[in-house]
Write a structure and sequence with these properties.
- The complex is a heterodimer of chains A (282) and B (101).
- With 282 residues, chain A is α/β, with parallel strands linked by helices.
- Chain A has two domains: 111 residues, Spore Coat Polysaccharide Biosynthesis Protein SpsA, Chain A, CATH 3.90.550; 139 residues, Insect antifreeze protein (UDP N-Acetylglucosamine Acyltransferase, domain 1), CATH 2.160.10.20.
- Chain A is built from five helices and 23 strands.
- Chain A is globular and about 55 Å long.
- Chain B is of the alpha/beta class and 101 residues long.
- In chain B, strands 1-2-4-6-7 form a five-stranded mixed β-sheet, with helices on one face.
- The radius of gyration of chain B is 12 Å and the shape is globular.
- The chains are: A alpha/beta (282), B alpha/beta (101).
- Chains A and B meet through strand 19 of A and helix 3 of B.
Amino acid sequence: MNAVLRCSPDITTVPALARRHPLALTPFLGATVLEHALSALAAEGVKHVRIEATDRVDELRHITGRGEAWGLEIQFSDDAPDPLPPARIVELDRLPQLPNQPLWRTYRDWYSAQLALLPAMANRRVGMREMAPGVFVGLRTRVDPSATLLGPCWIGANISIGSRAVVGPGTVIEDGSYIDSSAEVSGSIVGPQTYVGAFTEVRNSFAWGRDLLNLDTGSLTEVSDRFLLAGLQRRPGAWGGIGEAVRILFRGLPSRQGITNAIQLPGRNVTIKSAPGNSPAT
Amino acid sequence: MKIEYQDKTMALSEITELNATNSSTLRDEARAGLKHDVTSLDIDLSRTRFVDSSGLGALIALHKTMCGRGGSVRVINPTPTVQQVLELTRLHRVFEIVMTP
């Protein structure tokens, strides 16, 4: 079976989401919108996908490769001008998993779609576990025992939640982020590799790197103080030649996380508080 | 920056940026302009495009000054970006924020 995936170039309702990357690569529950769409098509038995896109196609190609990760054969419209034989046409203005919910009419649409798919996606993600009703936590994530997690929330992989931090309800923390002590995040999305500073409050917003987007008003702010909000992606060569030498020298040693896991005391539980109306954590 | 007086209120306006470059000047000029009978300080941020931690520090310093003399500080019509930074730092709970038409 063939499918044509149209990454609509003419969507202008959510410009802040398309600022860094094409809309198709917007973070969505541990992956990108495009990756979720490809997963759904593969699950439906599609074998060949033609992606029609004009916005930063190289970035899309970098994510999809030739489709091996999904067992698909992917071609892009600028690679092969000839369309596929009779094919299902999928507009990426909504996800196949959620066909009745548009993604890009407002910022709230994109947020609401994530909450709607949160339990289903969490149950499918390898290593993700439900620590309390509606509280899903991914692999290698560390939650301080004094932190409070309120469902529904998705806390991805390789995340650190600091002491007395409050996360949720209605919150998605993407992989590799760091929520510092006493920070509060609710009704919001924290993008991948994002540092949320101590004592800050992120509410009804999308925080990604230093960008802070209000989901209701569409107001976008670049926060200039790195102790408030910052990206955690390491810049190439940021540590210079010495750092690179040390990294190569110690490449064979276990990671810091691995060492931490190895010495972690068994039976140490994290305090989880469920949302009002939910039963307490077990 | 413009300073105006009305009754017991001192109003600061025409602030385009609140950053490390101008925050200490703003703070010092505002303090110097405080007359003895001023009990309320209105800071109009409707034209402020950018605020950083230095600017927030200046606002907090003025808040402390006014609290020390039994007065209060109001932030008037902050732009959406300033409002976001105030909320991120929880200062929207410290300052009275007034939105006027």
